[in-house]
Amino acid sequence: xxxxxxxxxxxxxxxxxxxxxxxxxxxxxxxxxxxxxxxxxxxxxxxxxxxxxxxxxxxxxxxxxxxxxxxxxxxxxxxxxxxxxxxxxxxxxxxxxxxxxxxxxxxxxxxxxxxxxxxxxxxxxxxxxxxxxxxxxxxxxxxxxxxxxxxx
Length: 152
Prior knowledge:
Layout: E1 7-9, E2 12-14, H1 26-43, H2 47-54, H3 77-86, H4 91-100, H5 107-118, H6 131-139
Antiparallel strand pairs: 1-2
Helix pairs in contact: 1-2, 3-5, 4-5
């Protein structure tokens, strides 16, 4: 007779305590990940999102700060702003100057930053309001309109 808590029935060891024991170690992590994958698949979320919610002690821990990430252009922005103020507005020329300084920036990065420095030229007409905005003006309560949102 085997010295275990289960009984040997037709060559198969049936242990009633085995199914009740929670998994431990690597198996526990694998089971938890499998459950998280099933939940993610059911909700249509990513696995990392489900694990972030599962591992949170409080609901406040599920939010992440959306801080702007530093870009490769950040160290060169003061230089670009100074050169732009001096009158050099050619994106190609400014990009070539940065490349000569061994800066690992792309033309598109420089172009986007110079576009923010240029702003909108004086005399350009503003865009007309969208259909959604006008609908909000018409269907909203007049006391909720702000000064900027009031139709002219």
